[in-house]
Specification:
With 375 residues, the protein is mainly beta. Helices cover 7% and strands 47% of the residues. Bound molecules: calcium ion (CA) (6 copies).
């Protein structure tokens, strides 16, 4: 109902611009629909590969100096990239074909607690990469016990999950044929991290975007042509699921792509989704039935806008002077420099801009992702 009203409003706006109703069918209007637009503050250096190469980002928060936090992102043609918060490339780890990447904190390894970045790797079709993040410099070091492979044919989406119930860490992996596998990550006793399969599910059809909400113990997954589903994230949670939003009748235009969680205090905050078909980002309540709040796009400004976004990430925490209220980051399908098309990259937006543009969006910069609390 709400979507229909909005699409009609978009149609009306189009007709005021001089196009008649006959020139613009409803799907064209829907494709261009978003509530508000913001402009990016920074963009990352372009990836070294052409075509569709940049895919998914993850923000890592530095333990002592949040302004030295980094963005870890995938070049799915061949590397894991580390950028500073203004998008300058710091490191390029040439490895496999990493598709989606995620970060978790304080993994117990021997007597240490280490931060990790892990990614699905399509180079051998079904691999899992695990890296230690240097707690001072943000550099990445391979810490996988062996070449780890998933059971599914070709890996695709990825999220880490840290259970605040049991303390265990898990890798959540989705596949091209709607497969889902959950791997427990564990200390192999020799300073490396290994993985074992603890759960498998069938989502239905091609599914990529994945994010776990560690505080609520659940995960969300994008079934690209269908919608967003919510499942329990503990390995014994079974196949019970709830549909958060849908393509068609809902607020999503296929493909449904990247997902991320904005953590605010006391279990509040947002789930955010990339609605790729209309080049916009949908914001939902993090709680309960995940009610839909609104959508925004990133338009051209001093940095070019985004379209066809795959992966996204958000951080609510105060990252220092430049990003006192955290940031939102989105992959850009077409990185322009004026009229020149460059290799793909990621766009960075100060969170407060989104709060100012769209009503009902939270701003709470006090939740340190290293210190989440079970809800
Ligand atoms: Ca793409
Ligand atoms: Ca990610
Ligand atoms: Ca996809
Ligand atoms: Ca993707
Ligand atoms: Ca662009
Ligand atoms: Ca650009």
């Amino acid at each position: 109902m709400k979507t229909c009203r909005k699409i009609c409003a978009a149609l009306l706006a189009t007709s005021f611009m001089g196009f008649g109703w006959g020139d613009c069918n409803i799907s064209e209007a829907a494709k261009n629909y978003h509530d508000v637009a913001v402009q990016a503050d920074y963009e990352t250096d372009a990836v070294v590969a052409g075509n569709d190469a940049a895919d998914d980002p993850a923000i890592w928060v530095h333990p002592r100096n949040p302004s030295k936090s980094t963005i870890i992102a995938t070049n799915k043609q061949g590397g894991l990239l580390v950028y500073d918060l203004k998008g300058k490339e710091l490191y390029n780890v040439k490895v496999g074909k990493p598709n989606n990447v995620d970060v978790r904190y304080s993994f117990p390894l021997g007597k240490e607690k280490i931060d990790i970045a892990a990614a699905t790797d399509k180079a051998k079709k079904n691999g899992l990469l695990i890296y230690k993040i240097n707690s001072e410099t943000g550099e990445l070091t391979n810490i996988a016990a062996r070449d780890i492979f998933a059971k599914m044919k070709v890996v695709y989406g990825f999220s880490l999950y840290h259970s605040l119930k049991t303390g265990k860490y898990y890798a959540l992996i989705s596949g091209y044929e709607g497969e889902f596998e959950q791997y427990e990550l564990f200390d192999n006793g020799e300073g490396k991290i290994d993985a074992k399969l603890v759960r498998s599910l069938e989502i239905g059809s091609i599914s990529e975007g994945l994010v776990a909400d560690d505080e609520y113990g659940c995960f969300y997954i994008s079934e690209e042509n269908v919608g967003i589903w919510k499942y329990g994230a503990e390995p014994d949670a079974g196949a019970k699921r709830v549909q958060v939003d849908s393509v068609g009748a809902g607020h999503l235009i296929a493909d449904v792509e990247g997902l991320t969680i904005y953590y605010a205090r006391n279990g509040k905050g947002h789930l955010i989704a990339s609605s790729q078909g209309n080049n916009s980002y949908n914001i939902y309540d993090r709680r309960g039935m995940n009610s839909y709040i609104g959508s925004f796009s990133i338009d051209d400004g001093k940095v070019d806008g985004t379209n066809d976004t795959d992966g996204i990430d958000v951080i609510s925490f105060n990252l220092g002077k430049e990003f006192p209220n955290g940031l939102f980051i989105a992959q850009d399908g077409e990185n322009m420099d004026g009229t020149e098309k460059l290799n793909q990259n990621f766009k960075i937006v100060r969170w407060e801009k989104i709060v100012q543009a769209l009503s009902g969006i939270m701003l709470d910069n006090t939740v340190n992702p290293r210190n989440l609390k079970k809800q």
